[in-house]
Task: structure prediction
Amino acid sequence: MSAGSKSTEALRAVLKSQYHAALAMLKDAIEKCPEGLWVNSCHTNECWQVAYHVLFFAHLYSQPNEAAFRPWKDHVANVQYPDGIAGPPDPKSNMPLLAKPYTKAQVLEYWAFCDGQIDATVDALDLDSPESGFWWYPIPKIEHQIMNLRHIQHHTAQLADRVRTAANVGVDWVGARPAR
Result:
């Protein structure tokens, strides 16, 4: 596929549509999450952590490479796990493990930022690249984008299940780019 081929442009259109659809479902899950569940330790990772984590990586992995990534304006970087999901604490670090919980309003603002940048970032990607742009994922760029979409859906499903269990409210399915 060359950069200007019809098949590459069709693929870009599909990626954009599926990113917007996946992110629309994530937004629905965030909006429907009961306030009492948003910051609640009944799960290993609280809902705010899962939502922030998926947006952080949707944003990061929609970039050409790690060097091109510019964190969101309210991102808290001076923590051991800036993506929102904690791993084991580093006993040599004096930084806190995680940022203070982000509010739903903050996460929805980040959501709007991520959704708003998708078209331009997908247009800028070299989908023919044999490398993802991230050393820890030695896969072709197109496969990395599909993996990123799967990651969004994986965590959206987690949140949707929590919302269904806590509030008996379903998250709406979005099959393609939602109407704007």
